[in-house]
Every structure is written in C-alpha cells, then in structure tokens.
Design brief:
The chain contains no helices and 23 strands. With 297 residues, the protein is an all-beta fold. It has 3 domains: 115 residues, Macroglobulin (MG2) domain (Immunoglobulin-like), CATH 2.60.40.1930; 97 residues, Sandwich (Immunoglobulin-like), CATH 2.60.40.10; 69 residues.
C-alpha cells in the first residue's frame, strides 16, 4: 500500500487501547539500538483490519510514517532503528489501522512515546567556511551503555549518499579532536561537505555511519579598482562618456559570461540615479557609454 494513498483521520474513530500496545524499550540510542513496537488490533476485528501504519511524531514537529509488518490474526509489528539525523529527545507514536478498502478505523492520536539519545557527538567550530580557513572539531564516542567496543574512522565526503559520495580524504582513526585547512580540495561552489564518522562496534561486528554537514562558501567576484577608466575627465553634462573595467574571481569555476556589473551614479546632492548595466565582453571586461542629463546639478 502506497502511503500517499492513505486516507486521513476524521478524528471520530476510537483509539487503540494502551494495553494493546507493547514496546520493548522506552529509550533507544541512535544507529546501534532498535525499539520494537507490537500492537493487537483485535478491538477493530469486526471491521477486518488489513494493515497498520505507525507514525512517529518527532520532537522537531515532523511526522514520519512506517508500514508495520503483519504477524498473524490482528497483530502487527515494527522494529525502528533511529538514524543519525533523527532528532534527539522525546518522541510520540501513533498507530493508524486500515481495513481492506483503505478506510481508517482508528484514531491517529499518539498513544505511546519513547526517547532518542546518542553515545556520539561532534562539535564543529562553525558550519560555514571560506577557503583557507581551518575547520576544527571535537568528537565524543561513548562505549556505554551496552557496553560497546567502538572504533571509529573520520573521513571527509561530498555527499551523505553512500552510493554517490566521493571520499575527499581520510582524517584519521579514533580521534577525539582534529583540524584541517579548507584547501583546493574544496570547490568554491557553495557546496555542502560532510564529516563522516564511520563507527564500528567490534564486540558485535556492526557498523554504522553518521554525517555532520558544513558549507564551503563561494568566493565573490571583485572589480579591479585600478582598471576603472573613464574616457572623459572631467565629464560634462550631455556629453557621452565610456567607462571600462575588469573583474576578477578566485573561483576557477566562475564563467565570466555569467557575471553582471551595474553602475550607479550619485549626484552632488546625494540622489542615486537608476543603475546602468554594463556590457559584458565575456572576457572579464565590462564597458558602457553614458551621459549626465543636462538637468542634473
């Protein structure tokens, strides 16, 4: 059943009894722990319950749907493992029970809850950097409470998609703090990059990854002030004058034909004229011919 086809509650349906809900934990750690939810929908047996959707109402006000697995009779189950990006804290859970004609039988009000916590944490000195700046991070990985036997590797990647990402470089193993310069391995394209923490629990031979994004800011094009030249000096009113200038950009991915330069003239009494767009010569040079209206001071 496609979740997009599900009907919404009319708020008049009975609620699933709390005694019909079982969960094996009230606190769960991200990545390496799971929580199991079991429900018995026998209260709705007369209406032939067919499938159930569990909804987690996250602490950041987002709601996510999970199709529960059918067990037998009117019993359904779902095992939820918090992902690295799922919010920490107190989460509410509701269950929507549907019959064979996709009619909603139950209330969608939350009926139980649980808490997501973590045993790893990365703190960055910023979330945005310019080329040449240093990224500094402090990392905490805690072997409790199971206990675990964690080892971890830190890498820098250009995507949080495991199948599409490129590994820019390896930072190191079992680090508690690290720093590196944003050099030419990072493009000037306002791109997101990620500190990827690859965590392994040696005692159980399980692995998981967490991602922490940061942004490398684009450089801004600059007008070469020394290149600005006027064909007339001084400029007389109603007389054509041509201005020429050059632009530069440290970003090797910037194309000069994509740039726009405008000139705004301020009169001697402080008024700003309508901006004049210069002609782009597509070779980092710009030019335009203008004149000062005869009515201007």
């Amino acid at each position: 059943q496609d979740l997009s086809d599900l009907k919404s509650s009319d708020n008049g349906n009975p609620s699933l009894d709390y005694s019909s809900v079982y969960q094996n934990a009230t606190t769960v750690y991200r990545l390496f722990e799971s929580i199991q939810f079991d429900i018995n929908a026998s209260k709705f047996a007369v209406n032939f319950p067919n499938y159930t959707v569990m909804q987690i109402h996250y602490s950041n006000n987002e709601v996510e749907d999970f199709n529960m697995d059918y067990v037998s009779g009117t019993n359904f189950t779902y095992i939820y493992t918090p992902r690295y990006y799922d919010p920490l804290g107190f989460q509410n859970v509701s269950f929507s029970i549907y019959n064979f004609s996709d009619s909603l039988l139950s209330s969608t009000d939350p009926i139980t809850n649980f808490t997501i916590t973590t045993n790893y944490l990365l703190l960055l000195n910023s979330t945005e950097y310019s080329r040449g700046e240093n990224l500094y991070a402090e990392l905490i990985v805690n072997d409790e409470p199971q206990p675990y036997d964690f080892d971890w590797n830190v890498t820098i990647v250009d995507s949080d998609n495991e199948t599409l990402q490129n590994n820019l470089f390896d930072v190191g193993n079992n680090l508690m703090q690290f720093s590196f310069e944003l050099d030419d391995k990072f493009n000037y394209t306002n791109d997101l990059y990620y500190v990827k923490i690859n965590i392994t629990d040696s005692s159980r031979n399980t692995k998981a990854s967490a991602y922490f994004p940061f942004k490398v800011l684009n450089s801004l094009p600059e007008i070469v002030v020394s290149s600005i030249s006027f064909s007339k000096d001084p400029i007389k009113r109603a007389e054509d004058c041509t201005v020429n200038l050059n632009v530069t950009d440290d970003d090797t991915y910037t194309l000069p034909e994509n740039l726009t330069v405008s000139m705004t003239i301020q009169t001697s009494i402080g008024e700003l004229e309508t901006p004049i767009e210069l002609t782009n010569n597509n070779n980092w040079t710009f030019t335009t011919t203008f004149f000062i209206d005869i009515t201007k001071p």
